[in-house]
Amino acid sequence: MKPIRLIVLALLVLTISSVTFAQVSESPLLDLLDLLPQDSSGDLYFNDFGAIERAYPDARRPADWDEFDAFYSARDYSNIPLAVWWKVFSLMQTPLLRTSMSNYGDLPESLGIDVFEIDRMAVSGLPPNTVTLVEGDFDMDAVRAAHTRRGYSLQASDGAVELWCGAVGCENSSRTNAREADPANLFGGDLGRQWGMLFMPGRMIGANQFSDLQIVQAAVTGDTQSLTADPFVRAAALGVSGKGTLLQALLVSGTPLYNFDSPSLSPRLTLTQRPAAIRAMLDAGYETLPVFDLFMLADLVNDTHQIGALILVYQTEADAAQAAALLPARIESYVSLFYRRPLLDLWAGYLVDTVEVDVVPVEDQFVVRVLITTPRATAAQIVEGLTPSLDVPDVTQPGMLYRSLMQAYFAQDLGWLSTYTREELEALAGN
Q1: Which residue, of 237, 304, 337, 363, has the greatest Cβ tally within 10 A?
Q2: pLDDT mean over 376-405
Q3: CB 358 within 8 A of CB 378
Q4: What is the pLDDT of residue 211?
C-alpha cells in the first residue's frame, strides 16, 4: 500500500480572489443558492446531474424514462454511455434515490417533467422545514397542466414567478393524506401532501411549510437577501472553483458550528478513562484550531482524479493560515472514533494518493481547502463495478470518497476538525 502524500501549500493568490457578484451565473451552485433565503434552516444538499457528462465524458444521460427503463430492465451494460452515467448517478447522495427509481416513470403525469430532465437539485432545511428546488429544461405548460389535474391552481404571479397551491390551500401544505401518496412526487408526495409551489422558467420550488415558501418567494423576487449575499456561503461555493467539475455538495448550517465544538473523544471511554485520554492529547502537543464560520463538503472530478473536498471559511488570513498549518498533523494522528482505525488507513482504502491543504482568498474571506484525491475510474472500470464479480476493479468508484466524508460528518467522526480549545481540554483533564 503506497503512503499518502500530505501536502501543505502556501497561501494561493488565484484569479478566484477577484471574483465578483456579477459572476454568479458561472457557478450552478450559486445560481441555485440565489433562489434561497439567508435564513434557511438546516443543511443544504446540492446535486448537479447535468455535470455528470462533463466529469465523465464517456457517460450519456438517458434521453427520457422510456430509454432508461429499457436499459435498466435488460441490465444492458454493453451500452457503455448509459451504464457509466447510471453508475455515477446511482452513487450520488441525492433525495432522488430515497425511493425506488421505478416510481419515477409516473413523474410526467404527477409533475409534468421527466426525471431525466432534472439538471440540478437542492434540498434545504431540517424537517418539517424542508424546501426542495429542481432546475432543468422543463416544459412549463406541461408542469402547469399536471398540477391542474391534481387540483392545483394559480394563486398569484410576480413577473415570471407564479405561486400555485393545492386544493387544500397553501396554508395547509404540510397536511398529510395517505390516500394521495405518490412516492415519486418530490414535493411532499410521499405523505400525500400538497406543498405550495413556485414556478418559473426552468425551475420548480416547493416547501412543506407555506411560511418557508413565502420567504423563498421573497428571495426569488429580490424582496429579501438570498444566500448568495452571505459572504461565507459565497466563499465556500467559489472556493472549489478551478479544482474540477462540481457534482454534489453539502453546505452545513449553524453558527457556531456545534458539530465541531466538542473534544474528539471516543464515546466508548468511561468517565474514569476520559481524563487520561485528555491528558494524552495535551501531552502530544494539542493546539487549538481556530473556529471557522462555515463548513462545506464537495465532490469534484477533474481529468485524472475524483476529489473529496472539505472547505472551511475564515474571516482573517491569520486564522486560515494557522488552521492550514495545524490540519496535516491532526489528519496524520487522527484515529476514527467509529472504525477505530487511523484516518489515513481508511483513506488508503479508497486509494487516496494525495491530501493537500491550502488557503485561497475569496473576495474578503479566506478559504482553507482539504483536498483528498484518488484516481478517477475509467469507463471500463465503472462498468465493471456494475456486475457482481470476485475480480473487483482496483479503483474507487465515482462519488465513494465524498460519500465516506458525508458518513464521517453524520457519525460525528470528524474530530480532527474539532475547535475545542486547549484551555477547555486542560479544564476537563483537571476535573
Answers
A1: 237
A2: 87
A3: no
A4: 95
